[in-house]
Specification:
CATH architecture of the largest domain: Alpha Horseshoe
Largest sheet: 4 strands, antiparallel
Number of domains: 3
Order of helices and strands: EEEEEEEHHHHHHHHHHHH
Strand order of the largest sheet: 1-2-3-4
Shape: elongated
Strand content: 5-15%
Number of strands: 7
CATH class of the largest domain: Mainly Alpha
Distance between the termini: 107 Å
Length: 318
């Protein structure tokens, strides 16, 4: 069993310390995502675990601008979670934070090593990642840029610089351009996933759909891309496409949780579609009634006005 911030993690699932019943069980989880959140106290990590029933459990790294003493503990929780859920339902940021957040205790060691071997590109990149995971973006960026001076064609560093910009929400369009260059030079599945994630930040969702469809031709059983597509279609009100993607999602995985998630989301979209159609019909009926009401008033009024004008003209003639 593992405990963190009033939450217990065991081989069955996750529960609050004061409750015996599990809030979530591992086999019901359909997605795990981690994001950087800005607050008035500084940046922090927030991990969401969503179940087939739509329930979301949130785990946060403690907000603290002066110290990240709680970050290694939070990352140990992420490592524990990654050992319990399928890899193909975990978004990329969770893997990054889990890997490097557990190693921040080695930062001083690596700083010393870099003094003796300043051109060691691997040592440079690993230390930059440790700064990055602690939100020390300037130090991380400086090290990565030093690495580019050593090897200007290092795609891993170019990718890291783009993703740091993403975490800082800086110039998203430039990030997209940078990532398109990386994909054209050395495409791979994980980079497609990251590109889709970047484009989903309301930059160019239509282009994001194109990348998603391209990745599905390479990896037809991809789950996270289909989940992203469902939300993209729903936001754009493409309900038929959203339902078709959910049916695909239910068929590409043998996990019962994903089948249940797909079924529930389909039911939700169908209810939404029915309600929307009903509301549209009600609006049309109301408009027809309004037009009918005004016609009943306006037509007799116009006829009465016509008779008055006709009477006045006759008077002038006589």
């Amino acid at each position: 069993m593992y405990k963190y911030e009033g939450t217990k993690f065991d081989d069955i699932g996750i529960s609050k310390s004061l409750r015996r019943k599990h809030a979530l069980v591992w086999e019901d989880i359909v997605s795990v995502s981690t994001a950087v959140v800005d607050s008035q106290w500084g940046k922090y990590y927030r991990t969401e675990l969503e179940s087939a029933s739509g329930k979301v459990l949130v785990i946060k790294c403690r907000k603290n601008t002066s110290s990240f003493s709680n970050l290694p503990e939070y990352c140990e929780v992420l490592v524990f979670i990654l050992g319990k859920v399928p890899e193909n339902i975990v978004f990329e940021k969770t893997h990054f934070v889990a890997k490097w957040g557990t190693e921040i205790g080695n930062a001083k060691e690596r700083e010393q090593a870099l003094k003796y071997f300043p051109d060691d590109i691997r040592a440079l990149k690993s230390l930059a990642n440790l700064y990055w995971v602690k939100f020390e973006f300037r130090r991380a960026r400086n090290l990565f840029q030093k690495g580019l001076r050593i090897n200007p064609n290092d795609l891993e560093i170019l990718e890291a610089l783009a993703l740091i910009d993403r975490d800082q929400k800086r110039n998203i369009q430039r990030i997209v351009d940078q990532y398109e260059y990386i994909l054209s030079t050395a495409p791979n599945d994980d980079r497609y996933l990251r590109m889709i994630s970047i484009l989903s930040l309301n930059v160019d969702e239509e282009r994001g759909e194109g990348y998603a469809r391209r990745l599905l031709t390479i990896r037809p059983d991809e789950i996270l891309v289909r989940i992203a597509l469902v939300f993209y279609y729903f936001r754009r009100d493409f309900l038929a496409e959203a339902k078709a993607t959910l049916r695909e999602l239910g068929s590409v995985s043998n996990r019962q949780a994903l089948k249940e998630f797909s079924k529930r989301q389909l039911e939700y979209i169908e209810r939404y579609e029915t309600d929307r159609n009903f509301r549209m019909k009600e609006k049309v009926r109301a408009l027809v009634r309004l037009i009918g009401f005004w016609l009943i008033i306006i037509i007799p009024a116009l006829f009465f006005l016509y008779r008055i004008v006709e009477f006045v003209l006759r008077m002038f003639k006589t």
